[in-house]
Amino acid sequence: MDKTDPLADFFAADAAPGNDRDFRTGVMERVARRRLRIELVLRLLAGCLLVLGLALISPALQIVADTLGQEMSAALQIIAIGGGVAFLGHGWVTRTIRLPRMRLF
Predict the structure, then answer these.
(1) How far apart are CA 33 and CA 35, in angstroms?
(2) So where does this one cross the membrane (predicted)?
């Protein structure tokens, strides 16, 4: 009768790799996806608050535009749109990119 020790077979197998790149890549991908979802929700919330703020302040801006006249109203709209684009562009250009720290060796 041949008896084999299961523990001896277990320890005789090759050792697990010290650095499992597939596992680390999978974990980094899940972390990046979670961070992306959180950042998208935060940016969506900020955009909704910005639209709400503009909707609340638009009656006051309309009164100022009516007071200044039709010619200045168009100029104010262009300045407001340009300022908004500049603000968004500044946010886009100065954003920080969070890269995962990856040890190669």
Answers:
(1) 5
(2) 40-62, 74-93
CA atoms within 13 A on the CB side of 64: 9
Here the tokens at position 15 are 């050792």
Name the pTM for this structure.
0.49
CA dihedral 86, 84, 81, 71 (to 10 degrees): -100
Q: pLDDT tens digits, residue range 54-96?
A: 889 988 888 877 787 777 777 878 888 999 899 888 888 887 7
Q: What angle do CA 89, 94, 98 make, to 5 degrees?
A: 130
Q: Residues 20, 21, 27, CA angle at the centre, nearest 5°? A: 95
String of DSSP letters for 1-58: -----HHHHHHHSPPPPSS-HHHHHHHHHHHHHHHHHHHHHHHHHHHHHHHHHHHHHH
Please report, for residues 2, 11, 24, the alpha-carbon distance to residue 20 in angstroms, rounded to integers and kept in the order given.
36, 19, 6
